[in-house]
Amino acid sequence: MDTWLLSRMQELKDLQGLIGLATWDQETYLPAKAGPARAHQLSTLQGIHHERLVDPRLGDALARAATEAGLSDDERAMVTVLQREREREVRVPAALVRALAEAQSHGLHAWREARKERRFARFQPALQRLLELRREQADAYGHDGERYDGLLEGYEPGMRVSRLTPVLTTLREQLIPMVGKLTGAKRQVPALFDGRRYDKDAQWRFTLRLLGDLGFDLEAGRQDLSIHPFTGGTHALDVRLTTHVDESNPLSAIFSTIHEAGHGLFEQGFSPEHYRTPLAASPSMGLHESQSRLWENLVGRGRPFWEHYFPLLRESFPDALAQVDLEAFHTVVNDVRPSLIRTESDEVTYNLHIAVRYELELLLIRDELPLEELPAAWNARMERYLGVTPPDDTQGVLQDIHWAWGELGYFPTYSLGNLYSASLYRAAGRELPDLEGQLRRGQMLPLRDWLRERIHRQGFRLPAEERVREVTGQGLTDADFLGYLRAKYGALYGISL
Amino acid sequence: MDTWLLSRMQELKDLQGLIGLATWDQETYLPAKAGPARAHQLSTLQGIHHERLVDPRLGDALARAATEAGLSDDERAMVTVLQREREREVRVPAALVRALAEAQSHGLHAWREARKERRFARFQPALQRLLELRREQADAYGHDGERYDGLLEGYEPGMRVSRLTPVLTTLREQLIPMVGKLTGAKRQVPALFDGRRYDKDAQWRFTLRLLGDLGFDLEAGRQDLSIHPFTGGTHALDVRLTTHVDESNPLSAIFSTIHEAGHGLFEQGFSPEHYRTPLAASPSMGLHESQSRLWENLVGRGRPFWEHYFPLLRESFPDALAQVDLEAFHTVVNDVRPSLIRTESDEVTYNLHIAVRYELELLLIRDELPLEELPAAWNARMERYLGVTPPDDTQGVLQDIHWAWGELGYFPTYSLGNLYSASLYRAAGRELPDLEGQLRRGQMLPLRDWLRERIHRQGFRLPAEERVREVTGQGLTDADFLGYLRAKYGALYGISL
């Protein structure tokens, strides 16, 4: 491949890395008064990234390379990936980019105010504007009559509403009665977070130990604290996780760390040959999320995992956990309970929260739901799917930040991540016959290495679903996920699901 | 002023801020394996900054603005400052920029190897190459027959060898006998760092307290740890200091923090009207250094300062300092002693270290000293000026990193900083009649506010020496500095200097 084209690819990746650094720093170490300055710096950097990406010379070089004989498969994939990204960016007029940036900033502000006032109506005009601009953007991107597809493509390339809706609808219809049965079952859940204190330093040390055991390389990454845990960084050798330590409940830090480590292992696992090219990336948000959820739920809420770690946890918190046994603890980390807040929900009800969001944002983008009816529609679906009703908008339609800056099309990738995670874990179980035994002995590297080889090292060579099909023998399906839930919670609750 | 020109100024400043962030992060939190990735990211960012700066459209806009009627004084200064920076950058051909970057990277590597081998010869070819390129660069910048001026202009705009040499030579000739007298004087210096332990957390807390007292705004900046303390950051509201904590000697952290806080106060003190413009900058490295040295030496090694802080220090380290009194402690922080290493030297001998470097690098740039003779020339001057002889090159010519990446012309700004600091402090004393009393009571804000008004808020409005003349009534002089040393050390040592 043309050295000019390669150097442009590298430059774009460097700029993305720097955006990653400035964003990570904003959430971790940025001084309180520096917010507006950082916003300017990020906007300048994003502007330059945009300018370099839409540069016509890059378009020409990509077009030439696309027809060039003698490219390797990887080089061909680099060209395809960057060409697709570039074409999307080119299609959005500069005026719309600016208008969106303004509407996002305004949306965030209005959303924060609305949360303070506990009143959706305060946010409604800003959301209206965001919706109009996102529809315009979807049309600019292009679609086959379903605008939502134009947005979804930015998070989950290749996925379409026509394919997604049936899967998520079936999933929802299977989950509703399952949650009903689990909620109806009589089951004693011990209270472990009833005012006991879990030393913060001991929590921090425990999460670092987990990172080491998971094979997260702390010489090619780090962990810090932030209010909302996330994974960021600048390069496969500079991956930055954050966690959140709550003195009254160590599960927050533990599961945040495991979740983010799942993302982080993906990033650290990119192939060195792909560094500074478009292939050092996940092919979709859903596949990225499959890695975090696989470790957090399939591994981290599993019995084998805690057979190894519970004794160590009790050593870390000898006072708080003195009277608690593995059985009780495992019950607590697998408590299914319909609730109002998505980010605090268990792995069974989680996808019902996503269903509410996906269905509503699809209606919004299609302009089939008047915005003033959104809170009522939200509450009605929460009641229908989960049997709970938000007491106010803060615990309802205003709870997530996504819509506040116009991020519509993202939510379904969480469910895709859950579905993929179960399929991948099932495939891992077939190919690593002693997987449970390994986890029971605290040996997580065999699973990490399997994922590294099958998923991480592959980067963006194939679209997400094709990659999953390569590994599991089938594409997107809810069968593995539902099978996993039925087997696990049926046994835990002693009922048939 | 043209909004396009203003937005370009802001963009350049944002890029500088981001370079600051990536550099700060490199020295504080970057994972061990991420060095090469960060080098690429920084090089991309610097390349883009260069490209935007030399953009002919910027040149045209500046030229138009320079002749525009109706600009405010500040706008005019912005245009002048950026025009000068741009013209320097334009004059250096891209091939030379690349060759220099390569030679710098190679130079750093060779210097590190040479230090390991304790052998200048290992570094010599790399330095030879750097010298050739820097001479070429000086010619590209342009000068009136004195190449060194072309380089000096990059650190100390407006300063010339013809003006600098007489000042530094007189200074040297005054200091040599002064050091001789002080060294000859019999004076008992208590041993405080003889294996005593100074708790690291207590040191850290003490430095944070100092920062607060100095008026360094920890909501518009932060302090972290690094091996070599420095001041960086991204904006006047995001100023980042580092310090270094040595468990056996708290003076390292204390004086590092005070020194860097001096730099940091300058950065935090820029006028909000100048944010994101070329005026939010020091007019020279020497003036920047005057702020760090003023706080570190004129204030921080003074008797009034320790009358307030010594009791607090003793509270922080009750065991180590139990038997120590203010007298003894003040003697230790003002111990004059010829030594081999610049960064560890006291305020009297410090400028003799600079004299050695300045004189030698002037000869090197003029091509009047064969490189193989450099170590011997170094040692001879150390012997002549300070009476000490390096046992090997590591403690001699290889001790500083500056030449390792071709930084020639920088060293004299340290001495300029010392000279300016004494003149400014003397002026402050005239205008703040109770200055000593305030320091004795731990009140540092009146001095900070005076500096903020006279120096910090002014930013790059005037060249350094003009700014100093505005404040003190005179330009560069060694009289105030020598007067300060004579008065202080004459009294401390009980001799006439």
Automatic annotation (TrEMBL), chains A, B:
Its cofactor is Zn(2+). The lineage of its organism: Bacteria, Pseudomonadati, Myxococcota, Myxococcia, Myxococcales. PROSITE patterns: PEPTIDASE_M32. One of its GO terms (molecular function) is metallocarboxypeptidase activity. It comes from the Bacteria. Keywords: Carboxypeptidase, Hydrolase, Metal-binding, Metalloprotease, Protease, Zinc. Its EC number is 3.4.17.19. InterPro entries: Peptidase_M32_Taq. Belongs to the peptidase M32 family. Zn(2+) binds at residues 259, 263, 289. The active site is at 260 (proton donor/acceptor). Broad specificity carboxypetidase that releases amino acids sequentially from the C-terminus, including neutral, aromatic, polar and basic residues. It catalyses: Release of a C-terminal amino acid with broad specificity, except for -Pro. Binds 1 zinc ion per subunit. The keyword Hydrolase applies. The keyword 4Fe-4S does not apply. CDD domains: M32_Taq (cd06460). This is Metal-dependent carboxypeptidase. It is an enzyme of class 3 (hydrolase). GO terms for biological process: proteolysis.
